[in-house]
Write the structure tokens for this entry.
Amino acid sequence: MAYATPRAATQGRCIYYGTVLHFLRDPGTQQDPAAWQLFDPGALVVGADGRVEWVGPEGEVPPELGDGTPVDHRGKLIVPGFVDAHLHASQVDVIASYGEQLLQWLEKYVFPAEKAFVDIDHSRIISGLFLDTLLASGTTTATVHPTVHKASVDAFFEEAENRSMRMLSGKVLMDREPYAPPDLKDPSVEQAEADTRELIGRWHQKGRLTYSITPRFAPSSTESLLQMVGRVYQEMPDLWLQTHAAENTEEVDTVKELFGGRSYIDVYDRYGMLGNRSLYAHSIYIDDQDRTRLSQSGSTIAFCPTSNLFLGSGLFNLDAARAAGVRVGLGTDIGGGTSYSMLATLNEAYKVLALQQQKLSAMRGFYLATLGGAEALYFEDRIGNFQTGKEADFVVLDWAATPVLKRRTEVSADFQERLFALMTLGDERAVRATYVLGQERYSNTNQIAVPPR
Ligand code: GUN
Ligand code: ZN
């Protein structure tokens, strides 16, 4: 058979040949084999509209789909595009900032960097670089904090739209000193609400873009700001909400002093912020009552292991959250996190859980990075696996990307051992190509260009 080069094969129906893995549900701690489908060798058929038409064994492509252009990724692993459940487009230049924990790190590094986003040109350049870096890491959907500036939201959504990526974001809201510095504050709650409504009107549900109302976190919010957030969120049943919660012990103590309440999650609950499509990044310092409340309300958590280790924040208890029925996605939390790669993030997740006598299998890890993330963002009906009709965002991974990975793959006894080696040793170097709606948007033969400063 004559295979098209991947880059040329962007018109009409395409049949991608390779080892195909995707998930139907969480394999859990018991490795439920009905939770995934592995086709080795397999084929993925994508229609001209960028949606999945069929997935299955290589030799069983239905005859009526057989006219598709064959694309050769044989020997590589094809999985759904990674979903990054929490990170900051404004912190491209903050990653790898030395020596502080959360509150001091925000003051010393994050807020100075975020001030520059008042400038739309800066916002555009950084947003473009940020999104290209996600694509180069195999990430096709993310829920993203920009800054308090409207320009940062416009620039981010424009750049996401240019790349056809399914992205969630919204203007950061912050109005309480000192956790919001004076020159990075919403001037009033009324203005914050007006700006939010204007941006919702401009971007929400535009193509693949989704607006998420984004109070930064409780310490940088007045009570009236959180009241406004809860009111707008309750008023619009299809609005998303994202924030941070219970990441660091000093932060938790601050919230107790400022707001009282039984717990950090309880404070957000008080303002009507819990519910479907609301996401609480980190949620390390929560108890069983909080987990039950998050689960019952349909609220979700983003587990951000590289950030939690780098900022010395603490260890997230995944098994307790999942046992309580909370939807959990995996986040890089750039720039608290230290890698854009969801593979590197899984590697650190494994270690965070090992320190708590928990195990993260490769199957559960890849579930979390794909369908689990889609579920955490309430987009499991559109993305996250290769069921017919889903949007065909996918990534092609190379088992032999580095000599260490190649060798470890060769000596692996079975698929799950190989996959665990990829999860532990892989990073953006393992990404051969990234497709968005069936279009190749990144190939490792075309490295991204970093704009000069
Ligand atoms: N809490 C409030 N703001 C931030 C932020 O920018 N990064 C992280 N990791 N936590 C936060
Ligand atoms: Zn964050």
Notes: Residues 82-340 form a domain with the TIM Barrel fold (CATH 3.20.20.140). The chain has 14 helices and 16 strands.
